[in-house]
Design brief:
Helix content is about 45%, strand content about 15%. The chain is α/β, with parallel strands linked by helices. The chain has two domains: about 130 residues, Alpha-Beta Complex (Aspartate Aminotransferase, domain 1), CATH 3.90.1150.10; about 240 residues, Type I PLP-dependent aspartate aminotransferase-like (Major domain) (Aspartate Aminotransferase, domain 2, 3-Layer(aba) Sandwich). It has a seven-stranded mixed β-sheet, sandwiched between helices. Strands 9-10-13-12 form a four-stranded antiparallel β-sheet. The radius of gyration is 22 Å and the shape is globular. It starts with a helix and ends with a helix. The structure holds pyridoxal-5'-phosphate. The site of pyridoxal-5'-phosphate has 13 residues, from helix 6.
């Protein structure tokens, strides 16, 4: 080691590096702790069957992968894009929103995103000042309260999603919670983690609140296409233009690793997001956007394209088997026709959701304790349907022994 490097490493050893106060306020990211324990179990030789993180195990449709490969081979697609995305992708979003939801927008109301997660977090950077309130569902996708609110020095205010209300917020309570310091309200249906859906009547009433209130409605529609049977999930933009909505190609087309999604809605809201992103990232890879535009183009109308239907058929079957198996064992499963999550109440006397998840993990089965999504998730567990049927059946046997 050169003497310069030696001196540098010695001085680092005595230096204490403090994280910022806002980072210290963050609870540990839910899945980071679970991943650590899973790793330990793996080392002990335990076979892991993970229903943890919501990452589809099925491949992206072959025609989309092929398009991605073709676009990636083209040298012209390897320069910087722009932070708001290529016009070709944004125009594809305009067409998709029109055909799928009957929502008429233009390309200046669209921003391409590196998956929807960053946009859900970055919208807060554009509109939340230190000490401002942000309303987040409880239980909820942790990014709303943490990556978005706390990392902007905002204050998360939680609205409970209770079983007696089918895991929808009480809209009178929501309206009362919105005060002069409320900048953003995050909502998400079809919902993670509860798998609940919102009726058109609910959406109408929700939209009505935001016609009157100044706060921004940030509607997370990552699971709009993850629905079964006749159920078709709406866009909030069918009911009001006063919102920003987040979409993702991650789940619809099993493209989580390709990091492509979009934000769409009121021009000022999308513009705020673009301002933030232009200081931070330089857009998605052009070849990803081109493949994304191709994927959205597979929607010829409201109906899902065949490749998406095929993915959903598999998840629907898995849902049926896992839900029936869990019910038989004694869990109370929340019935749903959307998302690839099964949300279930653990039986009385099983020690609660954390104990239940720990005991499942002892046998190699990973399920996420509801408490990890907020205090109102206590007593529930979430299973992501990311395991093939054979392993679902094997896992049910393990869970039965836990109880
Ligand atoms: C409710 C919800 N919103 C957004 C996302 C973000 O997905 P992505 O960043 O892959 O688009 C997820 C991912 O699990 C989610 O569950």
């Amino acid at each position: 080691m050169s003497s310069y490097l030696k001196i540098a490493s010695e001085s680092m050893a005595t230096k204490t590096t403090k994280l910022s106060e806002r980072i210290s306020k963050l609870p540990p990211y839910l899945f980071a702790g679970i991943e650590k324990t899973v790793e330990e179990k793996r080392k002990q030789g335990v076979e892991i069957i993970s229903f943890g993180i919501g990452d589809p195990d099925l491949p992206a449709p072959a025609e989309i992968r092929e398009r991605l490969a073709v676009e990636a081979r083209d040298q012209e697609n390897h320069n910087y894009s722009s932070s708001k995305g290529e016009l070709e992708f944004r125009e594809a979003v305009v067409g998709f929103m029109d055909r799928r939801f009957g929502v008429s927008i233009n390309s200046s109301q669209v921003c391409a995103c590196l998956g929807s997660k960053e946009a859900i977090a970055n919208i807060a950077r554009a509109f939340v000042n230190p000490g401002d309130n942000v309303i987040c569902p409880n239980p909820g996708y942790p990014v709303y309260a943490q990556g978005a609110t706390i990392l902007c020095d905002g204050i998360p205010r939680f609205i409970p999603l209770l079983e007696k209300n089918n895991f929808l917020p009480d809209l009178d309570e929501l309206e009362n919670l919105i005060d002069a310091r409320t900048r953003i309200v995050y909502l998400n249906y079809p919902n993670n983690p509860t798998s609940a859906i919102a009726s058109r009547k609910f959406m109408e009433r929700l939209a009505d609140i935001f016609e009157r209130k100044n706060a921004i409605l940030a509607y997370d529609n990552a699971y709009s296409e993850f629905t079964y049977g006749d159920y078709v999930a709406p866009s909030i933009l069918e009911f009001t233009g006063n919102a920003i909505e987040f979409h993702s190609l991650s789940k619809t087309f099993c493209m989580t690793g390709d990091r492509i999604g979009f934000a769409v809605g009121r021009k000022e809201y999308v513009g705020g997001l673009v301002k933030v992103k232009s200081q931070i990232d330089s857009g998605n890879p052009v070849y990803t956007q081109k493949a994304g535009a191709f994927a959205l183009g597979l929607y010829k109308g409201r109906e899902k394209p065949e490749c998406v239907k095929q993915i959903l058929r598999e998840y629907e079957l898995r849902r049926k088997v896992l839900a029936a198996g869990l019910k038989k064992i004694g869990l109370k499963v929340f019935g749903s026709n959307a998302t690839f999550y099964v949300w279930a109440r653990v039986p009385e006397g099983s020690g609660g959701d954390i104990k239940f998840a720990e005991r499942c993990l002892e046998r190699g089965v990973v399920a996420t304790p509801g408490s990890g999504f907020g205090s109102a998730g206590k007593g529930y567990v979430r299973f992501a349907l990311t395991q093939p049927m054979k392993r679902i059946i094997k896992a049910l046997g393990h869970i039965e022994r836990v109880l």
